[in-house]
């Protein structure tokens, strides 16, 4: 990754600082989402409170990265790969900050959901959904660490899987609401939680696109070809739909 | 390679500067001796000592090449025999071990680390790959020179859950090399989790048949005491229920067993073709009983994949059994084995397809969850436990393979297990 060196060593160190900061943010965001879903599933309101406080680190880190990046641009006037790297850091940090916000939002809903006990099945679904989103996020950040952009293609497919899972949960929650109007409030909260997780997956995909751009200087093709059957899922058989 | 090159580049300037200083010093001594002949002998002695010191230090500088990575031996410098033993030592450690420099960049990762954490090739930044906050602070403390940090726990959740206890050790102060050592203690943690899971699942799922059995016993002892016809019927139902409980326990145990050992033994291969044939031979009689014919379309040639024969047998046994149960109305089940390309990867795909009623799209993402049933009643009638696909999914994930499910209402369902070709392991 740090293949070429610059004449000014401080410049290298500044770039490295940005990367390391993103790594730290990524770890924090992963942890927050994981804990938030855990708090939701186990109705652990104390854990939820801690997560809400934790979000500050991501906000601070994003601000720090922004400032550092602007200073580097102003001072070093970077070109080509360096410039992409810096702009990429800004973008990725803002995606990670959003992921943290979504995790925080899930944590905030823990109290409302835990007031009425929901069927275990919903939580299993929620865990599975967050598992997919977290796997996606981890993979993206691993790719960022190693810049192995050739793995990005398989990663975008997982987004479909998350969408399908979300749709399935959505239907299930609707049936609970129809069964008993008292379920409407907690189930709506759960619906928002599911939506948040789904959007975490979207942010992960955004990061993947940024990483690809940083490494290659080209944009990922916007639409993947239709007949590219996704992994582990659910492609409709030929002729359906 | 990057680290090696980097270190060498730093060595050259130090050689040159050393030479320059030496020449200047010798010149100075020569001038001094010319001015003050009395100083000739002490001057010569001092010059000799200077040359000896310079030779020794430059020799040490040549040795300063850091741990070379696991590249071919021919690239190694001949004058660095110690690095052989260091590398061999790292290689001999069964736990993942990563050597990093004072910038937090990976210099060497032993084979265990390479296989456990996919992209940790030399040159990767440690703080990017291991992002857990505890690990970040551990590495940071090591880099800042604060020693004696307690080991921290680190969990890697995907693709399979593994827990490590990580400690950091300083290898060499002058070079600023550190080692990150991972001790895998997933096993112990998993046994704890398994016990909790097992109790939760078993108590939940066993309660229904137990309740029904105890209800029937009550009836048999009370109102139906002298009713021979009812007694017979009730005993039949009770037998079904105990059978169900036994199956459930079997499946729970086998799922737990699979979850217990998430890592595959490296290098073990299995040929899919005889496995599929054995599965067909096992299920065949039952399929015939159910009025289902099994059609095979197995591509010629070897279909070797990395994996465990018994586990793969269980995968296809469960899939074929499901196809015969739930795709019964289609009268036919197709089994295929082909080389295909999926998502840009080539590999071997083994598929089981039924011609039954199909699975509604909203259920497909979730049918591999434990105890997820599309139609609880139908599943129970078919002696399903709700764990078969969970077991399949788990084994498939462990094999780095992918489970593809395609279904169309009214036309049937196809389960494909896709084994991507493994890049040659180093």
Automatic annotation (TrEMBL), chain A:
InterPro entries: PhoU, PhoU-like_sf, PhoU_dom. Gene3D superfamilies: Phosphate transport system protein phou homolog 2, domain 2. Residues 222-241 are annotated as: Disordered. Keywords: Cytoplasm, Phosphate transport, Transport. Residues 222-231 have a biased composition (Basic and acidic residues). NCBIfam families: phoU_full. PANTHER family: PHOSPHATE-SPECIFIC TRANSPORT SYSTEM ACCESSORY PROTEIN PHOU. Plays a role in the regulation of phosphate uptake. Belongs to the PhoU family. This is Phosphate-specific transport system accessory protein PhoU. It comes from Tianweitania aestuarii.
């Amino acid at each position: 990754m740090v293949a070429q060196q610059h004449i000014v060593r401080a410049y290298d160190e500044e770039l490295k600082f940005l990367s390391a900061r993103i790594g730290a943010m990524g770890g924090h965001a992963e942890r927050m989402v994981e804990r938030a879903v855990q708090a939701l599933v186990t109705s652990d309101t104390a854990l939820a409170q801690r997560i809400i406080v934790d979000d500050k680190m991501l906000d601070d880190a994003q601000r720090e990265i922004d400032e550092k990046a602007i200073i580097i641009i102003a001072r070093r006037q970077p070109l080509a790969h360096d410039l992409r790297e810096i702009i990429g850091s800004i973008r990725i940090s803002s995606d990670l900050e959003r992921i943290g916000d979504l995790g925080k939002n899930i944590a905030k809903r823990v109290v409302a959901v835990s007031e009425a006990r929901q069927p275990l099945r919903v939580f299993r679904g929620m865990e599975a959904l967050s598992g997919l989103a977290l796997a996606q996020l981890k993979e993206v950040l691993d790719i960022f660490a190693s810049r192995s952009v050739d793995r990005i293609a398989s990663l975008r497919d997982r987004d479909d899987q998350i969408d399908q899972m979300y749709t399935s949960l959505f239907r299930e929650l609707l049936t609970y609401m129809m069964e008993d109007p008292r379920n409407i409030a907690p189930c709506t909260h759960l619906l928002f939680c599911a939506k948040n997780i789904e959007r975490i997956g979207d942010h992960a995909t955004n990061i993947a696109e940024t990483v690809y751009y940083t490494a290659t200087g080209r944009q990922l093709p916007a639409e993947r070809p239709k007949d590219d059957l996704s992994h582990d899922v659910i492609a409709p058989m030929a002729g359906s739909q | 390679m990057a680290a090696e090159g980097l270190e060498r580049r730093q060595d050259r300037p130090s050689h040159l500067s050393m030479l320059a200083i030496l020449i200047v010093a010798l010149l100075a001594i020569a001038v001094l001796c010319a001015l003050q002949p009395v100083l000739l002998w002490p001057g010569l002695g001092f010059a000799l000592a200077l040359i000896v010191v310079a030779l020794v230090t430059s020799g040490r500088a040549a040795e300063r090449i850091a741990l070379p990575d696991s590249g071919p031996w021919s690239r190694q410098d001949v004058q660095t025999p110690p690095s052989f033993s260091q590398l061999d030592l790292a290689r001999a450690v069964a736990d993942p071990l990563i050597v990093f420099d004072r910038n937090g960049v990976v210099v060497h990762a032993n084979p265990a680390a390479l296989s456990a954490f996919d992209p940790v090739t030399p040159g990767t930044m440690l703080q990017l790959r291991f992002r857990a906050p505890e690990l970040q602070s551990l590495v940071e403390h090591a880099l800042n020179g604060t020693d004696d940090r307690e080991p921290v726990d680190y969990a890697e959740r995907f693709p399979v859950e593994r827990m490590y206890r990580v400690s950091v050790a300083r290898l060499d102060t002058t070079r600023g090399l550190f080692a990150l050592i991972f001790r895998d203690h997933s096993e112990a943690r998993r046994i704890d989790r398994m016990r909790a899971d097992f109790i939760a699942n078993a108590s939940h799922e066993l309660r229904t048949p137990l309740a029904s059995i105890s209800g029937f016993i009550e009836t048999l002892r009370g109102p139906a005491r002298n009713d021979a016809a009812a007694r017979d019927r009730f005993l039949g139902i009770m037998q079904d229920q105990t059978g169900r409980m036994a199956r459930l326990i079997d499946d729970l145990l086998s799922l737990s067993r699979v979850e217990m050992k998430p890592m595959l033994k490296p290098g073990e291969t299995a040929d899919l073709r005889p496995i599929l044939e054995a599965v067909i031979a096992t299920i065949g009689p039952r399929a015939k009983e159910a009025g289902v014919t099994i059609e095979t379309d197995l591509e010629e040639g070897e279909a070797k994949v990395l994996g465990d024969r018994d586990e793969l047998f269980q995968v296809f046994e469960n899939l074929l059994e499901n196809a015969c149960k739930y795709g019964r109305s289609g009268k036919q089940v197709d089994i295929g084995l082909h080389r295909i390309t999926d998502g840009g990867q080539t590999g071997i795909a083994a598929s089981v397809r039924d011609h039954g009623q199909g699975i509604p799209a909203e259920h497909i993402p979730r049918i591999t969850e434990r105890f997820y049933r599309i139609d609880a009643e139908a599943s129970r009638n078919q002696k399903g436990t709700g764990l078969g696909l969970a077991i399949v999914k788990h084994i498939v994930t462990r094999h780095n393979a992918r489970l593809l499910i395609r279904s169309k209402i009214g036309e049937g369902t196809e389960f494909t297990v896709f084994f991507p070709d493994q890049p040659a392991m180093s």
